[in-house]
Structure formats: C-alpha cells, structure tokens
Amino acid sequence: QIRRQARERRQYIYAKSLEAQERQTYLRKQQVKDVLASGKALPTELRKDANALGRDLTFDEAQAEPSSHIDNEYSRAGILDPKIVVTTSRDPSSKLLQFAKEMRLVFPNSHRINRGNYVVKELAEACRTNDVTDLVILHEHRGVPDAMIVSHFPHGPTVYFTLHNVQLRHDIASYKSSTVSEQYPHLIFENFSSKLGERIRDVLKYLFPVPKEDSKRVMTFSNEDDFISFRHHVFMKIPPRQVQLAEVGPRFEMKPYEIRQGTIEQTEAEREWVLAHYSRTAKKRSLLSGPAPRPSATAEDADKNPKKRARR
C-alpha cells in the first residue's frame, strides 16, 4: 500500500512538471498556425523555432488541448460525487464547533468528525483509506474562526485560506429559525478570470456535486480585490417572473494565501503559489481577477487634460 502510494505520487509530480512545458509548446504551435493562416510576418520570438514547430503542424491537426490539473487531480469529478470530511483544530471553542456544524451543512455528502487527539498524518491516512476526496480543516484565533484548509486527496492540491467577518446562521435574523436545505446547490463564481483565479475556482467548484435543474439552493463566490465573499441562499419562484431570495448562512470572506502540490501532511510538497504581502505593488494587483483593462483615452478626456491636448 505504501509503495503504491509513493509510486502514484511520483507519477503525479512528473505529470505536473510536464504540464507547463506541454502547454507552452501547444500555444507556440497555435501561434505559428494562426500566423500562417493570416499571412502575416512571424513574431520575433517564434522565428528561431518556426521550422521545428511548422514541421510538426501537419501531424497536430487532431491534437487535443494538453492535459491540465483538472485531468490529473479531478478526473472523477462529475462521475462520482465528492466525499468530504470537515474537522477543526485541536481543543476547539464552542463557536468553532458551531461553525464546523454549519459548514458540514454547506457541503453535501460531507461528514463532521471531532478532532480529539488525531494528528494530521492520521487524518490523512483515514481519508485515503475511506476514499475521501477532500478534507476541510477549520482554525480559530481566540474563539473567532480565522482560517480554512482544503486538501484534495489522494495527491493534492492543498489550499490555505484566511477567513474574515464570519457570521453564523444564528447571527442572520432572516433565517435563524429555519432548517437548511440538503439539495445539491447551484454555484455562482464571479470575477475569477486569471490563471490563479481559475485554479482557486476549480478547487472550490469540485467540492460540490452536480446539482439538479430544479434545485432551489445557490452558493455564491464573488471575488473583489482578492477577497472571496461567500453567500448561501435559497430562492423561490413567484409567478409570473419574480424570484424571492432568502439568505441561509453562514457568510464570510476568505482570501487564499498558499497552494501546495500535495496533501496536508506532506510538508515536503512543492509550493505552487504563495501570496507575497511585502511587495511594493501588493495593493495594486488583483491576483484572482487579473489586471484591469486600461481605459482608452477619448477626445473628452483630452479636452479635460490640457497636457494631453498640448502633446498632440
């Protein structure tokens, strides 16, 4: 069993190392193909390798897009429903226990276990033995939930989030006396347009099974300035064309700060991405949504700015 896991882990790491290289070669071939089709001159960076890339183009007509992390890590998504375990850090407070119970209701097909004296390695071995797809660990600081770790099995990735402004169901007056729907929810993802944003979106998306069309439950993940706002609603259609929403809870904001190419107990796993706080442009960057498009200068703007008008 241990040898098989080690072999599968080596194969996974090797496939991840080839992923970026295959993607780059595929994109360069597509660029050459588009240039030849349009009849334009080759870009400078492609001229050196144009002969080698062009020689293989005739054999690449039926080539599919190269494999990605979704093919390697989430190959069973949509075929088998995810199986999730929710737990806490050691010696949790009553508020963290309540938050863990509510997060167990957020994820369908999830189970909450008491942490007790289990160490991380024992938790990971239990998850692998029972075919668990994801392990969610919640942390706190002085009784306030402040962190969440999502580790995907059997080989990763593991994503670390900080939590902010956590409000439990009982803090939301509109729904505190009702029960929580157990339907598979519809998902809304807003403003995850960069490569990193798509990576985080996939990690969150595959925590949920495929919903039915008539499901009346919806989860929203809205990104703004790299803070992901989570909201949980149920809705009801009112004829003829109205929809009534009711917030269920819990609600919170989360911010990713690290992605590792391995499960939670593998401290030697490579860091795929780490948030750099102390860089000069940290406040100007939008890592999950990508750079904002630069506004085009119009005639009205030039009239308002005399320097631009004089330069013309």
UniProtKB/TrEMBL annotation:
User: Which superkingdom heads the taxonomic lineage of this protein's source?
Assistant: Eukaryota
Every Brix domain range: 82-265
Q: Where is this region: Disordered?
A: 284-312
According to its UniProt entry, the protein's GO biological process terms are: ribosomal small subunit biogenesis; rRNA processing
GO CC, sorted alphabetically, is: Mpp10 complex; nucleoplasm; small-subunit processome
Q: InterPro entries per the record? A: Brix, IMP4/RPF1
Pfam families per UniProt: Brix (PF04427)
Q: Which GO terms describe its molecular function?
A: rRNA primary transcript binding; snoRNA binding
Please name the Gene3D superfamilies in this protein's record: Probable brix-domain ribosomal biogenesis protein (3.40.50.10480)
**The protein, known as:** U3 small nucleolar ribonucleoprotein protein IMP4
